[in-house]
Model the fold of this input.
Amino acid sequence: SLTTQANLPLNAYYDRTAATRASAKLSRLYPGALSTVSEKGAPSVLELPEGLRALGKQIHKLGTEDLLYISSMESRKANREAYSVLQYTGKAWYLPSIRKTRDGEPPYACPRYNGDGLTLTLGGKVLSFQVGSYLVRLALFCLFWLLVWAALPQQAAQPQGAIFDPLITFLVASVIGGFICRVLQIPPLVGVLWIAILWNNVPYVGYLTSGILPEVKVVASRLGLTVVLLRAGFSTNWKALQPIWKNVSLLALFAVLLEGGIHTVLAYWLFDYNSWVWASLEGFICAAPSAAIIVPGSLLLQSDGFSRSRGPLPLMLSTVGVETVIGVWISSFINGLAVTESSLTLSIVLGPIQIIGGIILGTVMAFLFTIAVGLLRNEAKRLPNGDFSEAHLTNVNRLSLVIFLISAFATIFVGYKYDLGGGACVTVMLLSAITAHLWSKDGDPELLEHKRSLGIGLSNTWELLVMPFLFSMTGTKVDIQGIFNAKVFPKGLLIWVCSISARMGVVFLSCSGLQFSVKEKVFACGAWVAKATVQSALSGVALTAVNARLSGLDPAAPNYVALLADRDRAKIVQNVAILFVILSA
Done:
């Protein structure tokens, strides 16, 4: 009714999703209420339910610009459930709750216990720790460890055991790293990674993490890669991309290609790879941006009133997912060239085939998933008001999330098992993107609710489990002396400066045709350098593959020496990628 009354234009900042959903629900609850719009003009406030009349009076005072902003805000919300600002606000099992100081509260205060639990005020931020809930979690962990110790071989549940070491690393890195980053107001994944690196190197490399099996680290990397792709595809707003597709193409394609190309040339020269394939593998793994950092930060700024309908943030939100997928596919393709036993010609021929096959399979899986969700939803009968019960829809949404995640995980794991990682990445991205599009294109309220729930489920899966697991296991791969030495650090730092400068140049030029101010262009250049998720997920893939080929191989084999050289190259790739995360996250 609001959009009809204001006669709003259908442009790039307006979406009918909110109006469609509201009108459908109002029509069921108050039959005939919306007909007054067409029959009598604007509806009277007196026709609204008594509890909504005060709100109705305020709505009547809004102008077209206000209504446009509300609509654009609803549109952004509908397409961004896969990301959240939990990194900066809210509470998770490993993050204390945080809020700004209120009027009259000091910016700094010693720890004290009150109704909010144990509170600590630092720099105008109040951190709250519910001591009782932390004790409950500690007791739960102790019970779980006791169960594992009693049910499985004791070696696994003791220090240096296959269960004890990864679990302790996961908890220590998450809680301590999350607390530090919550205080500093930076993404928790940075703290989780740093604490895991320290945990792996104190008092010497592997002392506290020797029980973590290589297979666990591989699982963490592939789980992380899968969720990264799902969120990137799910958050892609095809409607928003249409009016700015040229700028998106310039950013998503040329930024990755230019940064990756310059990095490749410098890496080939500085690290003596003697192989353009390995140099390009390092370059393009490091070139992909991190949507997990850029999107939450952008949403937080928009919630504070910055760049809501114009400026760099809407462009960044529309582009970063596409660029992430491009970077992942290129890296996966080059990784196949570097470590596969197939011929170079066959690998190059299979590249386009993987893309086409991934597009077809991803599209088919998205339609099958949509059909499956419909079948699950229709297991129950509708209520007299035409809706399904909330309990039934909640169960359907939970089961849909499980099906969605298992399908994507299976695709990635099977793809990498048979050296088809690039095609598997395309499949997962298309599965997510097309599913999101199918559920939002017609404005169906029920499908929109499924989309919202699935997006929130993806966000929670990443923030609460996969992200801390991925970055804690990534930290255990890192030998501090392997990065911060005269051979890697100065060369990596030089490559970082040069390649990041190239990316900034592309971003600045792409913003030139959008009437951005100089400050907005500079902001976009700085914001677009974030690295974390792709580098953590892919940095160790080549090293894992080379170690697998070396395992059990006779030293007298003709390719043994070549594989040892490849292992050294793969270690450099991993170390430089982690260095990029440290510098850019």
In short: The first helix runs from residue 2 to 6. Residues 1-21, 28-41 have pLDDT under 50 and may be disordered. Residues 48 and 56 are 8 Å apart (CA to CA).
